[in-house]
Design a protein that fits this description.
By secondary structure, the chain is an alpha/beta fold. It is built from 13 helices and 24 strands. The protein has a 7-stranded mixed β-sheet with strand order 14-17-18-13-12-20-21, with helices on both faces. A 6-stranded mixed β-sheet has the order 9-8-7-10-11-23, with helices on both faces. A 3-stranded antiparallel β-sheet has the order 5-6-24, with no helix packed on it. The relative contact order is 0.14.
């Protein structure tokens, strides 16, 4: 098995290192596995110049040719699946098999958007004789993108795929905790023949890089996935320069469990998905609102499945859940649990750190959590689930909508009237009924309220990376 890669910046089609570095830590062992090069001002200036030059080439490249490069790069990623997954598990901690699936998911984003590149249709507007009105969709320009640490491969892939398919160039600042996934993407595109400057990859202190890139006139779009707090800050910074943004921000996903559902199946499915990626997912099902009639049975099955979750080093066979990203997440989860218990919540299982080495935390279930508890309003971003009883669908929907977030929501029901009510009334960009899959490459993904602005994926996924130009063409001077 390959070792962790030698981390480098990728600017203007070439790899480079820097003297200033940050350690990359394996969260399962707390050992330093790599050294992250931090981009300095000259590196960022070079990236901006490269992105400007790359855009001049790529925006004039035929969509079919763009798609061909993307498909070649995706094929390379698929052949390197094991190598990339190994890097992801080392830096992130997630189970190796889940990391392998993430690599394929990243490749699928490129494959889908490659198809969309050749379908970014304009239109002809009906007009009178002697004049045409034509709508064109054209790439917006150089993109500054920022991806989070929780999905080292698929999150950078989403940003890069949308930009490159649209004909834009991009400077990606990938997460300093999990940089290898993005670097493997850059390697694949380099080997696939992407022109220099179209894709540039930098690392470093997030605030330093964002404050330098976003105000620059070369940057025409800011794309970010991360917390609502940081998203608002970047949006404010971009607005000062009239730069549009694409924001995929935090969530606090509710799950409405109706009395007519298969109770055990819903509980086991919900508990298993809650612990996926150690709960470090913006769409993670967290606030379960369960009808009174089935509450006790659901809670028992849910708790039993959570307690049975196999936690350990992601490289070990049979492990279902790896460590948290860092020690800060352990502290945050411990505080959520203590606050909820002090306010009357029932701790059904978990609630504590596992071992002294590695950032492991027990799969945790809290029941009967009062609305005054912090975890009812703040996303825990960890393996912590809330299971509360409700007396009706109306109450469940009201409580589901009671937070300022609206990224994903879920429901279990077999009644079409219940489903229709939730479609109409639940405030979320993504509602999944009888499934806990919130997004696919072919479906648009994004939030409402404080969960963001814009959509990634689906036929809508390229819209933010393009501008609309209306051409009025008269055959004679009028």
């Amino acid at each position: 098995m390959t070792s962790y890669p030698d981390l480098q910046l990728y600017i203007g089609g070439a790899w480079r290192t820097t003297t200033e570095t940050l350690p990359v830590v394996n969260p399962a062992t707390e050992e330093i596995i790599g050294h992250l090069p931090c981009a300095g001002q000259q590196d960022l200036d070079d990236a901006l110049a490269a992105a400007q030059a790359g855009f001049a080439i790529w925006s004039r490249t035929a969509p079919r040719d763009r798609a061909d490069v993307m498909l070649r790069a995706a094929a390379i990623m698929r052949t390197r699946q094991d190598e990339i997954a190994h890097s992801i598990t080392l830096e992130h901690g997630k189970p190796y098999q889940q990391a392998r699936l993430e690599v394929i998911r990243g490749a699928e984003f490129f494959e889908w958007d490659a198809g969309e590149a050749v379908r970014a249709y304009g239109r002809v507007i009906p007009s009178g004789p002697g004049i045409d009105y034509i709508v064109h969709h054209q790439p917006i320009g150089a993109v500054a993108a920022f991806s989070p640490w929780n999905f080292p491969m698929s999150q950078p892939a989403r940003k890069i795929a949308g930009a490159i398919a649209s004909g834009c160039s991009i400077i990606l600042k990938a997460a300093e905790e999990t940089p290898a996934g993005a670097m493997h993407i850059a390697r694949a595109f380099h080997d696939a023949g992407l022109p220099a400057g179209v894709l540039n990859l930098v690392f470093g202190i997030p605030a330093d890089i964002s404050s330098y890139l976003i105000p620059n006139d070369i940057i025409r779009l800011v794309a970010f996935t991360g917390s609502t707090t940081i998203g608002r800050h970047l949006t404010t910074m971009a607005s000062d320069h009239m730069t549009p943004v694409l924001m995929e921000l935090g969530g606090h996903a509710p799950v409405i469990v109706c009395e007519d559902t298969d109770v055990k199946a819903a509980a086991v499915s919900g508990s298993s998905r809650k612990m996926r990626n150690a709960g470090q997912v913006c769409t993670s099902p967290t606030r379960f609102f369960v009808h009174d009639q089935i509450f006790d049975e659901f809670l028992q099955h849910f708790t039993d499945r959570a307690a049975a979750t196999v936690v350990g080093n992601g490289m070990e066979r049979g492990v279902e859940m790896g460590p948290l990203a860092n020690h800060r997440r352990i502290t945050a989860l411990s505080e959520f649990v203590d606050d909820a218990r002090n306010k009357g919540a029932d701790l059904m299982t978990g609630g504590s750190r596992i071992n002294a080495k590695g950032y492991f935390f027990e799969p945790t279930v809290l029941a009967n959590v009062p609305d005054s508890a912090r975890v009812m309003q703040e996303e825990p971003f960890g393996p912590l689930a809330i299971v509360n009883p409700v007396g009706s669908l109306d109450e469940a929907i009201e409580r589901a909508n009671s937070v300022p977030y609206g990224l994903a929501a879920y429901a279990f029901t077999n009644r079409s009237d219940y489903a229709n009510q939730m479609v109409e009334r639940v405030e979320a960009g993504n509602l999944s009924i009888n499934t806990l899959e919130a997004s696919l490459p072919e479906t648009p993904f994004g939030g409402v309220k404080s969960s963001g602005y814009g959509r990634e994926g689906g036929t809508e996924g390229l819209h933010h990376y393009m501008v609309v130009k209306t051409v009025s063409h008269s055959y004679t001077i009028v």
